[in-house]
Amino acid sequence: MVTTTIDQIEKHAANIRDGLAKIQPGEPHAISDAASTNDGYPQGDLSIILVESIPDGYHRIEKPTDKDRQLVPGNTEGSRHCLDSLDGVELFRHAEWNQDYDGLMGPALKLAKERTIEHPKHGNITIPAGRIVLTTYQPDYDADTRKTRRNAD
Q1: Is residue 42 a part of any domain in this protein?
Q2: Which helix (H) or strand (E) holds 11?
Q3: What pTM was computed for the model?
Q4: Which pLDDT tens digit goes with each residue over 11-68?
Q5: What is the dihedral of CA 127, 63, 46, 146, to 10 degrees?
Q6: Is 133 within a domain?
Q7: Under DSSP, is residue 148 helix (H, G, I), strand (E, B) or coil?
Q8: Overall domain count for the chain
Q9: Is 17 a member of any domain?
Q10: Domain residues for 92?
Q11: Residue partners of 4: CB distance under 8 A and separation at least 6
Q12: CB under 8 Å to 80, separation ≥6 — which residues?
């Protein structure tokens, strides 16, 4: 039976709704060794993207501390995207990174060992050793809208 693309999307959505999808929201996921450069893996508002090298504009954090395990700034449950360990991790941050950073470019990670990015709600994502990942943040449209309104007044 030939189905249209929209039929396939609707069937997939129904499978997710009915709990029949392969990966459920909030379940752990391991990135395959067969994954390709530029493959992306969302973990809530954090995106994990496989890259070939550390992008320009990033600098290495020479002595990361336990606080550097948290990849998203903030102290809410939603910002608790944390590495299970810094062992075997080279950590790089965008040159503009500081305590008040509100850009969309998260840390880049060069992994000598398999590591897991943990989150209490979105499910853990395990990344195999030998990979380089770039993390990015989802825009906060409410904050952007407030800035736009404030500037327009």
Answers
A1: yes
A2: helix 5-17
A3: 0.75
A4: 877 876 776 666 566 778 899 888 999 999 988 889 999 999 999 999 999 999 999 9
A5: -170
A6: yes
A7: helix
A8: 1
A9: no
A10: 25-141
A11: none
A12: 70, 72, 118, 119, 120
